[in-house]
Amino acid sequence: MAEHPKTHKPPETALNTQPTLKFVTAATLGATLLVLSGMALTATVVLLVVATPLLISCGPVLVLAAIVMLLVAAVFLSAGGFVVATLSVLAWIYSYATGKHPGGSEQLYHATKALKRKAKVMRDKAREYGCQMQNMAQEVTQTQESQPQPQEK
Predict the structure, then answer these.
(1) What pLDDT shows up at residue 35?
(2) What is the distance between the alpha carbons of residues 131 and 136, in angstroms, rounded to a whole number?
(3) The pTM is what?
(4) What's the CA gap between 100 and 58, in Å, rounded?
(5) CB atoms within 10 A of CB 96
(6) Where are the domains of the chain?
(7) With contact defined as beta carbons under 8 Å apart, do 95 and 102 qualify?
(8) What is the rounded CA–CA span in Å between residue 88 and residue 68?
């Protein structure tokens, strides 16, 4: 008797009540939400009927007030965004200046090197073109000096 494990088995004749319980719960919840949404719709229609004359008579003023409020909100949100952007840029610059190598500093280093390289190439080209122009100007002046001048009468 000590060798047999004790296991409890439910009787096989019991009905499986879980799907029924799920259905009843879902139906109750669905009916409750349906009633609440109906009440919200009814309240919306009643308030719209009551407020329509007020909205029609005060419409022009309310539209202008709404536009002003939207513009004020946009200005405040933009200013806040600019402040956040400025603070994050200043924090990045501070980290970069103190040598902490923030994200993107390696890309900045490579971009700086590429710009310096390109500036050197452009400087060399400008010097080359300057020398070419100087040589061309000297040739033009030499050819003008070597040509005989027409005499005026």
Answers:
(1) 95
(2) 9
(3) 0.38
(4) 59
(5) 15
(6) 104-143
(7) yes
(8) 30
